[in-house]
Protein 1
Amino acid sequence: MEPSRTVFTSQKPLQVNPIKHSQPMGSTLAFLGVKECMPLMHAAQGCASYTKVFFTRHFNEPIAVRNTSVSDITAVLDGGDYSILMAIENIQEKEKNLKPSMIGLHTTGLTETKGDDVRGVGTHIEIPYVYVNTPDYEGGMESGWALTATAIIEQLTLPATEVKPNKLVLLPHVSMQPIEVEKIKCLCEDFGFETYALPDLSTSLDGYWEEAQGKLANGGITVDQIRDLATSSVVVSIGASMKKSALALQAKNPAIEHLHFDHLMGLEGCDNFVGALMKIRQADPKPLVKRWRARLQDAMLDTHFLIGTSHFVVTGEPDMLVGLCAMLRSVGGTITAAVSTVYSDVLETIEAENVFVGDLEDAREYMQNADLVISNFHAERILHSYLHTALVIRGFPNYEELGNQLKNDQLYEGSTYFLFEIANELRKVKHEH
Amino acid sequence: MVSRAKIKELMNESACSHSKDKKPGEGCDKPKPGLAAGGCAFDGAQISLFPYADAVHLVHGPQTCLGASWETRETKTSYEGRDHTQMGFTTGITTNDVIFGGDKRLADSIDYIMENYRPEAIFVYSTCVTALVGDDIDATCKAGSEKHGVPVVPVHAPGFVGSKNLGSRLAGEAVLEHLIGTKEPETTTPYDINLIGDYNVTGDMWQYLPLFEKIGIRVLSSMSGDGRVGDIRTAHRARLNVIVCAKSLITLTRKMQERYGIPWISVSFYGKRDTTFAIREIVNALGDPALIERAEAVIAQAEAELEAKLAPYKALFEGKKAVLNTGGNKAWSIASGLQDLGIEVVATSVAKSTQDDIDKAREYLGENGVLMTKPAAEQAKVIDATGAHILLAGGRSLYTAIKKKISFIDVNQEKKTSYGGYNGLLNLAEDLKYAFRNPVFANVGRPAPWEAP
């Protein structure tokens, strides 16, 4: 099967059962990966409320996000200064002990339409302040996250000319769950790199129990660490959406080496990454990494018959979609439809019978003849009418299952578990019908 | 269009008890930048109308408004056609629509929906961006309605006009303006009521509707739990409006009284006492002696059946004390349910309550009950002082329960079963039974091997 090279976009005037999520939501999530950051959505109160509920239910954790509560009156009369500064003042007055390390201001369709100068407001704010323009009538969750990572680097990271050897920064795309970021960090650390991730959800939304429930982002990379990122010797972008963020860091210090990977899933994806790290460090990976590679090889052989004789529909954000499809293809799965939330050039690399930008209504006609669907939880209700089709939930949101933050599909180990999960789900539907 | 005069009127509802303490013109609280936490007006409008399963709910706005909110509500329906409440429809406007206007996209979307889904009606929700760029939603809806012969109802509750509560009111206005009184019912009875403000979350309504049937009370229409658009159009022929736990729709019922002479009452169906009280209120308002007599018989039988089923739980819960930390009407409605189960409620929160709610909480808890005004700081001390066995609160209070090694129920968590009506008490009792017996709160809190004991 050749790559389709013909990614098309649904031509309907509306979306029915959408899978797309908005830029400001991706931005909120990115700011939650900065320690003690206060994400502040410049919006009517509902935007932040929906976002909070959405992530609270996905992660089963409290989500710290505030909003500027733009009203119909301030929408017309205020250029942004009033609501943003009032929001900060009100929060500080009410919660005297709250000491945010940074304010992460992100806009929405409403405040972009009225054209607020969110950059200028920063001069009146004493706390470190990062702003990002994320209208929700453009892009999607993936681009909102990427724009935010880029803005954080551009506005906080100090330029440098020297690099620290063996200092590495990871730029993960939005669909990577906290444990996935942790696993990749661990691999880099095992290679002897001092490793950072931006944004870093692995220590903030990884679901851990502690006494204080944060009114700010619980964990993540610190503001000081962000300031110092341009001394890294290597920046690794994972996912096409994160390339620009890597270039923004390189702009702070051209001596930084940039490695890019579209994904770290499946044997080839992992080999590329591990190979690149080996080259820099001139060292072999730890024995356990090699062992996991052999287990993945075995898993590929164990699962190839079931997966290789099955048809799949996969939906999600572009960067996740590319990785999942590559993994299924590597063991012979036939992808009848890869349905993306938004367009991205990287979609052109997907090997599938149909690759398109659309919604679950569009995906539905392909689901009828699929053995297995990989989608967010919204596909579940549709699949009630197709009993011969299995569902594996990936992407945002997953309100059906618990422990989403600890689901790992990355590297040799995660890929191994993923293939077994797919094969076991296939076995259930294929044996029963 | 969103009308400022209408919003002002809704914010100063004369029939609302909140308005009593306010100076003239002061009205409801406006969301404060940085501190507003709840949903917006659009959210409220959706909550009030979304349960109409025979209608399509089309959100005319950018991605956040619907993308994050569809298929999140457990509003049950018995509608046998395609259930549109579990689907999401949005115009998902893009930059082009912001620049050139989204009217054409909206009109095309209405056509698409009618061609592919043939609903009984379409509700079109304006949102901040489409309101700000000035799309003529009224005209597009009117044209769509004429073209397709079903009501296409514009709902003007963009998020930035205010809170969830205001959005519910605006939804009420849309229904009053475009639906109520546009169709005659096939038959009427002297016992026809409209149910207003019960959204049938987890099937709450189905806990008490069988009792109505036994008594002979007929629900002519519902706004909007398990409701049908066709029925709400006939709502003007009802004899009584019954508001269920929803202050936000008082404006609607007041206006229906003025316009159609339909009186209204406000009731709740949480716990035994409230359910019995609610049924009596309804039949008394309808005023038929035979109906009242039948109601008393049904109440007596239902209460007796319930008491028999509750007996084993009451034995189990004897001597148990509870601290309740939750907002609004839950502060007394859950307290009432707990007391019906024989549990002593030693404290409840009144941090965000209205004076009505505070009075009611005092009435239910008695003079020794603690009404906490700063529950986050107070609850641990109250647990110590009273020897309470269980804390019912939001997730943020879980730590207090673990620290005090007592049981815990997250009352703000999405509930999966109904606590409504008489039988809802049995569901609450089941949940409590398991909570009391679950050792997890003590187990989780045990010291780690590396901590000093």
Protein 2
Amino acid sequence: MLFNKRTERIFIWVFFPLALLMPLFLAENAFYISKMTSVMIFALFVMSLDYLVGRCGLITLGHAMFYGLGGYLFWMIAPEYEAVNFWVYTFYICMIASAVALVIGFLVLRTSGIYMIMITLAFAQMAFYFFSDSIEFGGNDGLFIYVKPETSIFGLSFFNLDDPVHFYYLCLLSLFNTLVFFRLLIRSRFGRVVDAIHENPGRTTALGYNIFLFRLMSYVIASALGAYAGYLFTLQYGFVNPSMLAWTTSGSALVMSILGGMGSIYGAILGTFVYEGLHYTLEHLTEHWMLFMGALIIAMVMVFKNGIAGYMEKLLEKRS
Amino acid sequence: MTTSLFLVQLINGLQYGLLLFLIASGLTLVFGVMGILNLAHGSMYMVGAYLAWYFVEHTGSFGVSAIISAIIALLIGIFVERTLIRQLYRRNHLDQVLLTIGMIFVFNALQGILWGNDPLGVSVPESLAGAIPLTDVLEYPVYRIFVALLCIGIAAVMYFMINKTRLGMLIRAGESNREMVECLGIDIRKLYTIVFAIGVMLAAVAGVAAAPMSSIVPGMGEHILITCFVVVVIGGMGSIKGAFVAALLVGLVDTFASVLVPQLSSMMIYILMAFILLLKPQGLFSS
């Protein structure tokens, strides 16, 4: 069984059907469709971070580097005024991001704990200033993507990326697939070893596993998915800018992941939706939304020790 | 680069480095002794700068305003430690990250409510307003030299306090073994409150000192926070000596990079950090 925990199953059965039906009710309201899409894209990004931090125990504050890279890579490799194939470019971007992650991961994974947080931050900041200080990449303003890719496979095209509802479904599908992918990965032999490394690196080494290699592979996988999320973001808004790879993007993704319940994977969706929902609501209610947001985050740390997912699981355990 | 320009950049770099040390020392002290990763440390720097502005407007004296700001910062430190930080000693670093990010939000919001979002400025106090001529055409402001000397003074006091006084002894003991200190009948919670409050005060004092040199803007805390983390990590987390060396190093590298390689200047300190961490994964002076 893929979704083993009861809470997780309930969440999946509530969230995905609702998300699937949402455009039927809100098809006229383009704003909500676009808002939901962007939150789902970010949830995908948070999920990849959640796997890295919660499952592998590799805390990074530089994950946004790959988010931004996904966008910039598309601008770099795609011709400017010609529609390219979405699937082919997804492949290209994930491959290039993986190659970058392989090199950076090779360097940063030599450190651990707080030092790893800082060295990942260092690389992300380098990337940030590389893009924001260079004229070729549009500096602080970023760049525009003029033509969106087409999505045909063997001549069949299911999505038209210029249509917000189509794009919404593409993102929903991506999110679901990523969730399933991570569940399969976690339940595979590879995932078991990764869990063992998280629990006790010393013993896992003694069992004959090369823990560096497993960490590196996890880092590459999460980074490639992070880049994919950034690529989707770029396609949605038609631009890339350096704020995508600012450390605050990594920071808020980390907050969402902790909020949702570190390492639970589906918690990433919960965390992102709760955070963005609160942000959106408070921003509309008051000019000083940050005060309430901050107070809520503080309160949540005090109350939910294992994030929202952990809290829900505890509630359900009490009932049964 | 001429000799005099080199000299000016050298003093600039050292002065910037010393200011960084003032902020970073609080960060590294709190981490070393309490094991708390305080991301809201930069906000304290911002609070210091805003308090300085506020009290200069109301009292007219920079000195008085500096003292009041430091005392208020100390009280904020005690309050925050007692109410929030205390809950987190037994939790992991990630919860601390989340909590202190929440605190950043709150402090930024309070800053917006109390003082608005327009850039503010504090003028240099009159007694320190002059400039010392270095050559015929170059001169160096007295205030900056005063700040550098102040930072050296505070560093010396900290060195003395940690190595020669009873409180310092307790801090060093708490750093190496919390349980043992508790067993010896010392109230470690009180010690933690003191250390945290001192850390907050150091950041706020740096904010006060920096107020006349730079404009006071929202978000100034986050910018300096990242730079201070670079300092703390290069020096080795928890090492005050390391923070001192690293702060000067970062100050000099940043200053000279903006003159020599302007296109790489913002990246330079991160390149430095990555390079040092790859050679010494625990920083320069790790314990």
